């Protein structure tokens, strides 16, 4: 049943839906799983993917559906809500369907954007567990990552304090780490702008190695990227051992294996390899694996989750972070290349609100009332902003994947506005569906479900944007021009020198290109809305994630640690001390 989303808050809908949520035992029976394939964690469970994938290895894959979006407002346009609503709609049509979504970060959950649990009647449950740590994957990643930093700084301290002979007595060899070329840092899962730049090791000889350092947000850790692309525990262990934490004074990489910490880091992450199973508010299965932030990370649900879901379900819906220029581009050219999986459909989530913003509407500020241009009919603003939607449709079409536009309905949208978006989307060669999943759950997503089912019957001519043999700078140029719409790319001398070094070293020949760019514009500048023209993409640095096998060009002023706004969500979150229930999550 659908709850009254106009009167109830998300956490209240979740509480009502959770009363009948399947138990781990009921999920096992419902999904046809074996007893040892389900690992209970209280009200939820993890799935032993190696056992499942081995048992179902000969079963054909189901239909593979990606969900992405247009360039969002700072409020987000509802990709997770659409993912869950589509699953509910396909469930209403009697389909064997499931989804894979990303675990929310404590950063946005306690900041201005809120949790990534969807909303209204298109909601992930149990909402409190989902929003506040779930089965501990992000915490395990933080511990593993920070252990690597502990090992690095301790080694630097001991190498400073001891001679080669004294190091040998302690069974250590001198790594001769260059303190000016340390790549590793600390992570925390909050938006903590005060930790973007720190000095550590202040004190005496026993207080660590004094150097400049920083904190990034936990889900941007290379360990999260590795979890998203790893195929099994052995692959995870091998990738962790290849992480470059620093360079020595001769310019040679120093890895976690060199620090003899890779095994212990893997021990912290041993349980992260199995996806967590939760539910939609209408009790369809949802796998949660890997993390968000496609602007600064891969931002995809994991390859592992997709592999087992495609065996378990006839229709599998997987989520990519942010808009098609970054989230779908990484799904298309990185995740699919690593997994070998070919998608059937990509759903492009759009809202009338965001299109009006791209048409020149007033600035959208989280925590403040929307200007009336967004709550009243304004066809002129809307028509100007539709160019952004058409750009994203074309990005998906370049891959050969079938695009389906989902108009994520708001009660302020008018029939004329909806008709205009539908007309332009269909003229651009996309199916278009209005979906009221937030208000009505699966019943409100039937039009979207039907459009996706119909699109899944079409043949897909899937192709990557570039071959792996293409040099890094040419790849970046191609992505900038063909995906973002830039005129070209400019490189700082430091970034270009790094790019040339990576291009000349065969060890990096098969590394993926993982762009780091703002999600608030097709360009590098978050203030440029719509479809900017006459601009050049500036690349200021190139990071290397040797374990994940990513080269990460850093563009514009994008940072790996977001900041907390003046009206964060944590101001409204509390606990009912009588029942122990968490209040105020959204």
Automatic annotation (TrEMBL):
GO MF entry, a single one: ATP binding
EC number(s) on file: 6.3.4.3
Transmembrane segments: none
Keyword Ligase: yes
Pathway, per record: One-carbon metabolism; tetrahydrofolate interconversion
GO biological process terms held by the UniProt record: tetrahydrofolate interconversion
A Pfam family hit: FTHFS
Record has Amino-acid biosynthesis as a keyword: no
InterPro entries: Formate_THF_ligase, P-loop_NTPase
UniProt keywords, alphabetically: ATP-binding, Ligase, Nucleotide-binding, One-carbon metabolism
Domain of life: Bacteria
Reaction catalysis annotation: (6S)-5,6,7,8-tetrahydrofolate + formate + ATP = (6R)-10-formyltetrahydrofolate + ADP + phosphate
Amino acids binding ATP: 73-80
Enzyme superclass (EC): ligase
Family to which the UniProt record says this protein belongs: Belongs to the formate--tetrahydrofolate ligase family.
Protein name as it appears in the record: Formate--tetrahydrofolate ligase
Organism in which the protein naturally occurs: Desulfotomaculum nigrificans (strain DSM 14880 / VKM B-2319 / CO-1-SRB) (Desulfotomaculum carboxydivorans)
Lineage: Bacteria, Bacillati, Bacillota, Clostridia, Eubacteriales
Gene assigned in the entry: fhs
